């Protein structure tokens, strides 16, 4: 039997030592995602226009926000965000100290090092159901968003980070903001209420959402930031003639959905190991501001900040007119167009989501606590 001298080790032994010295620390550092003081590596985002960072810019659709006055207060102008400045995802990123905006998945440049802090798959006018949003032409359904994440983003992320997604994804937040369009532009516009009661339709939505959250969990997601449905009955579009769906009916729909959403998330936490969530109650946050605007510096809680063309005039009552005027002090408006919040309101939502200790705002923990798990 031969023994290698410690004084004169063989070339093979030297190579082995060097390999361990070089490779082992490297793999550990790559998959150690708490860096630069940040509580989380980044965010993967799914949902509708409330969280879309510009995906609809990259294909034909009538649901676009790539023109002024959208983005009038955004650093680089119009970006496809359906507001005057930052949306709630951007503002959560600020709170989490992420180094850059989360890029839209459909942007051809969203690859390589650009995806290490997350990718935004959301699409304006989309919903939980695949056919929601078809009234505006092409949108990316929630089902397709998740397929794109699995088939395009994950392989790219694994190649970039050098480790399996099962190792990296628990260090990311999965933001899901969807559901309102399924009522406003599906159930009510298509008169589905003639066939289905509100409770039955909501159960269909919740069951479909459950499957999609379980799919994201199976892919490696463990920390979920889920947005409730906004108080739809206050939306300025309802003040426009010919919109189907009364404020009372839409408010009732949102309330029923939000109750069932909380029940679903509690059930998923009980049944899936390491599944954690922060349910952001945008319904409560917005309703409180709308009913008590002066407490947070708002004044106009009813009208869109930008000029919106009504349905009678050939518009849809939702989107801003191209190049149209806006209110001079946009920080005092709750709504920017006929449906979407201003940056000022998004800031209120993101701040409460991140730091509030009240279950009225976010349940059962806030986003800061979720990120630190």
UniProtKB/TrEMBL annotation:
The Swiss-Prot or TrEMBL record annotates one GO molecular function as: hydrolase activity, acting on ester bonds
Q: Which InterPro entries match?
A: GDSL (IPR001087), GDSL_esterase/lipase (IPR051238), SGNH_hydro_sf (IPR036514), SGNH_plant_lipase-like (IPR035669)
* Residue ranges the record marks as coiled coil: none
- GO CC terms: extracellular region
**Classification via Pfam families:** Lipase_GDSL
Tell me one GO biological process term: lipid catabolic process
Entry's family note: Belongs to the 'GDSL' lipolytic enzyme family.
Q: Under what name is this protein listed? A: SGNH hydrolase-type esterase domain-containing protein
What species is this protein from? Prunus persica
